[in-house]
Amino acid sequence: MLTFQYTTLINAPIETVWQFHERSDILVLLTPPWQPVQIIKREGGLGVGAISEFRLWLGFIPIRWLAHHIECNPPYLFVDRQEIGPMESWVHRHEFVNENGQTRLTDKIEYEIPGGLIVEFLIGWWVDSRLKEMFRYRHEVTQRECDEVVATRTFGGG
């Protein structure tokens, strides 16, 4: 089992960061433009039972990815688990912690790559680097979007 974690202190209240993640267009916003991913559907918001479905492209090969939300504790945590997809297993914890009016956003993923320990040893570093690149992008978008919400509330406009 491999573990990936990425954390950022977002300069916005926890409620603002949580509400950003509740947006109906969140998957579009958080998908890096360079990734070969097609969003098929998102249903149920962040609550338990919610689903997100994607089509990933590995070259010319489409791969279905279906994730179900298995835990939700607003505005602190939601967890999704891959039901169908490219990994042997995948559990993604989205954690939100209040730190003096800011929010510590942490994405933690525990996953297994098909093929066992040898494959994990051979390509685990590559998967980790792709995840780091993706979550750097996601956290930057989250900060930018939450900055806009805070500025609008503070100054009454754009």
From TrEMBL:
Gene3D superfamilies: 3.30.530.20. It holds the Pfam family Polyketide_cyc. Residues 10-126 form the Coenzyme Q-binding protein COQ10 START domain. CDD domains: SRPBCC_3. InterPro entries: COQ10_START, START-like_dom_sf. Signal peptide: none annotated. It comes from the Bacteria. This is Coenzyme Q-binding protein COQ10 START domain-containing protein.
